[in-house]
Design brief:
Elements lengths: L5 H9 L7 H5 L9 H14 L8 E6 L3 H17 L6 E6 L8 H16 L5 E8 L3 H12 L4 E8 L11 H7 L5 E6 L3 E3 L2 E3 L15 E2 L8 E2 L6 H27 L6
């Protein structure tokens, strides 16, 4: 468990150059980040995005499993944009996942139309998800953004084609929808066998105890509601530890990118 004071954290950051591999980094983190394959997926994902981190003005992610991946990428984007004297990206969370309640697609579209009306333009946008299987729900979001004229890229921690390599995801359709944008995948069909069976890295964020926050999908709403207005002490601790791990991972990834000259700011 992390439970480290601010002074201990600062001291750890000063020595972070000793941490080189995903395995070493995973030992320092908690929750879904304590698994090396998750760190490896994020490292691959960040290298693919590279010098485009400073371009993103908006992040749109699915709630709640996409929150932690979005937090990591948002910190990286904000770090680069700060050095370029640009403001941090606006971040929005919408209902995602399979089998959304009736009226969800219309509600999400309405929310995005209202946001565009208020802001005028979302700028370059990054859609973030923890993983894609068939890609049905994310393709609906992409279709809406395309119709609204939003310029976007898509980033996911991992994808899944089936255990035997069968074509399972909807990547060809997603590539059609993204038009001139890019698709970034941290781990493509890279499941590893663990004591609990085969685990896809991005699915670590689907587990109820990943963030300490449980949400429910409401009919006709663009945003899920939280199951418990007052999380338990264990839930609060899980939230603190997960966010702390996301922060430390983002810091480590930023250093790795600078070392490899994948970002130039």
């Amino acid at each position: 468990m992390l439970n480290i004071s601010m002074f201990e954290r600062i001291g750890w950051k000063e020595k972070k150059s000793d941490i080189e591999t995903p395995e070493e980094m995973a030992e320092k983190l908690d929750g879904p980040f304590e698994h090396p394959e998750v760190i490896e997926a994020f490292e691959n994902l960040s290298e693919q995005i590279g010098d485009r981190f400073g371009d993103y003005e908006t992040i749109i992610s699915d709630d709640a499993s996409g929150r932690l991946p979005s937090l990591v990428l948002r910190k990286l984007i904000s770090r680069v944009r700060e050095e370029e004297s640009k403001k941090s990206p606006d971040t929005f969370f919408v209902v995602g996942g399979m089998h959304p309640p009736e009226g969800t697609e219309e509600a999400v579209r309405g929310f995005l139309e209202k946001t565009l009306e208020e802001k005028g333009d979302l700028g370059k946008t990054l859609i973030v998800s923890e993983y894609i299987g068939e890609g049905i729900s994310i393709s609906e979001l992409m279709e809406t953004l395309k119709q609204l004229g939003v310029d976007y890229d898509f980033a996911t921690v991992s994808s899944w084609h089936g255990r035997n390599g069968d074509e399972y995801s909807n990547l060809p359709r997603l590539k059609e929808l993204i038009d001139k944008g890019s698709i970034f995948i941290g781990s493509d069909n890279n499941s590893r066998e663990h004591d609990e069976g085969y685990i896809i890295p991005g699915m670590r964020f689907n587990r109820i105890n990943a963030t300490g926050v449980t949400t429910r999908k409401s009919k006709g709403s663009a945003h899920p509601g939280k199951e418990d207005a007052r999380p338990s002490s264990d839930d609060r601790q899980a939230i603190v530890e997960a966010r702390e791990s996301a922060d430390l991972l983002a810091d480590w990834l930023y250093r790795k990118l600078k070392e490899k000259n994948n970002i130039t700011s």
